[in-house]
């Protein structure tokens, strides 16, 4: 479990929600934007509630371990997945693959911009 501090208040949520929230906050801030999101939290009484936050530029979010948590961890995986599906959530970078040379196909070297072959 993690404590998320925002605007002087601290709420408790699961590790995956806190991690997704921090990544989304950084991504939105990098775009120079701010947006409202909701996350599930656990109150000091142990009830499940929802917190609404404005994240992005000018809205700092701190996630720290909830060392004093003793109860069972709720399943907020659905909320973490919703944050990860946000259009501004950082996506994994594309992996570059080396282009293979196809010596058996003479058309493989055809370059339409040059109106011909790129190799002699």
Would you tell me the structural class of the helices and strands? Answer: alpha+beta
- Describe the largest sheet: 3 strands, antiparallel
- C-alpha-based Rg, rounded: 23 Å
Query: How far is it from the N-terminal to the C-terminal residue, by CA?
Result: 63 Å
Order of helices and strands: EEHEEEHEE
User: What proportion of the residues is helical, as a percent range?
Assistant: 10-25%
Number of helices: 2
Number of strands: 7
* Poorly predicted sequence stretches spanning 5 or more consecutive residues: none
Summed over residues and divided by their number, the pLDDT gives a mean of 83
Q: How much β-strand is present in the residues? A: 25-35%
Label the overall shape.
Answer: elongated
Strand order of the largest sheet: 2-1-5
Task: Please give a handful of descriptors for the protein shown.
120 residues, alpha+beta, three-stranded antiparallel beta sheet, two-stranded antiparallel sheet, 7 strands, 20% helix, elongated
Structural write-up:
α1 (15-30) packs parallel to α2 (77-84). 20% of the residues lie in helices and 31% in strands. The longest helix is centred in the first third of the chain and has 16 residues, at 15-30. It is an alpha+beta fold. The strands form 3 sheets. It has a 3-stranded antiparallel sheet, with helices on one face. It has a two-stranded antiparallel ribbon with strand order 3-4. Strands 6-7 form a two-stranded antiparallel sheet. The mean pLDDT is 83. The chain is elongated. It is built from 2 helices and 7 strands; from the N terminus they run ββαβββαββ. It has a domain at 2-84. A hairpin with a 2-residue loop joins β1 and β2 (9-13). The protein has helices at 15-30, 77-84; strands at 2-6, 9-13, 34-42, 48-56, 61-65, 110-111, 116-117.
């Amino acid at each position: 479990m993690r404590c998320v501090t925002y605007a002087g208040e601290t709420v408790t949520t699961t590790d995956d929600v806190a991690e997704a929230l921090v990544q989304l906050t950084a991504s939105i801030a990098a775009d120079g934007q701010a947006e409202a999101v909701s996350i599930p939290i656990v109150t000091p009484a142990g009830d499940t509630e929802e917190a609404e936050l404005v994240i992005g530029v000018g809205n700092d979010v701190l996630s720290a371990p909830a060392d004093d948590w003793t109860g069972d961890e709720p399943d907020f995986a659905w909320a973490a997945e919703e944050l990860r599906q946000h259009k501004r959530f950082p996506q994994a970078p594309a992996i570059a693959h080396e282009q293979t040379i196809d010596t058996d196909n003479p058309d493989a070297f055809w370059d339409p911009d040059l109106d011909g072959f790129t190799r002699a």
